[in-house]
Amino acid sequence: MNNVMRYAMAGCLLLAGVFAGRSEASVVIGGTRVVYPAQDKEVTVKLTNEGNQPALVQVWLDDGDDKSTPDTAKVPFTVMPPVFRIDPSKGQAVRLVYTKEPLPTDKESLFWVNVLEVPPKAAEDGKNHLQFAFRTRIKLFFRPTGLSGDVATARDKLTWKVVPNTKGKGFAVQATNPTPYYVSFAHVGVKAGDREIDGEGGMVAPGSSTVFPIENLSSAPSAGTQVVFTTINDFGALDKVVKPLDQ
């Protein structure tokens, strides 16, 4: 394991007595997701240090294992540069390059971009310090050429139905996605008359179904109940949609 990751795993919290230090990340990613068109040689992720101290940053990709490290993650991408320093109010462009290992050509593939920020060593000023290493993960959608349909209208192709909540009491709604695109949600809920019951967000993969538990939906919805969901598009924008539920 390299020194940056070792520091983050073993020394994310350096604790002794009285605490001093920041509690939020300074390095900001320029976007909430990355789309990698298969025909492109590379894509760029922009990072900015909005703090007042230099930051050491490490970037790597994984295929869904949030416990991955740069040494254990196995993905068909190269990151350049993988480790770098960003001074305050400065930025860094990180290049992601697909290394051409085979991926499905009939649907999108999902990966995750990890950004680990390690703050500089605390000053030896006689005080005790609490220091944090911050790790941020955002989705990367690898999009093959020639996919059927349009990613912008994939949400309209979803079908919805009420199902028992297998993770608890009451009911849930199930989304089935017949398209080759991932569809991401900020919220999924139901609306019956003037009453709207909100639930959590999530994602439904191409050709798959996902169940979204709806808190406080203790009985099966009556006829005319609608599903209400907010999708997240390629640019991170939100769009609220209301559709009939299949009874």
UniProtKB/TrEMBL annotation:
Pili assembly chaperone C-terminal domain sequence ranges: 176-239
GO biological process: cell wall organization
Keyword Nucleotidyltransferase appears in the UniProt entry: no
Localization (cell): Periplasm
Signal found in the keyword field: yes
Gene Ontology CC, one term: outer membrane-bounded periplasmic space
UniProt xrefs under InterPro entries: Ig-like_fold, PapD-like_sf, Periplasmic_pilus_chap, Pili_assmbl_chap_C_dom_sf, Pili_assmbl_chaperone_bac, Pili_assmbl_chaperone_C, Pili_assmbl_chaperone_CS, Pili_assmbl_chaperone_N
Segments forming domain Pili assembly chaperone N-terminal: 26-147
Listed Gene3D superfamilies: Immunoglobulins
PROSITE patterns: PILI_CHAPERONE
Stated family: Belongs to the periplasmic pilus chaperone family.
UniProt protein name: Molecular chaperone
Organism encoding this protein: Dyella dinghuensis
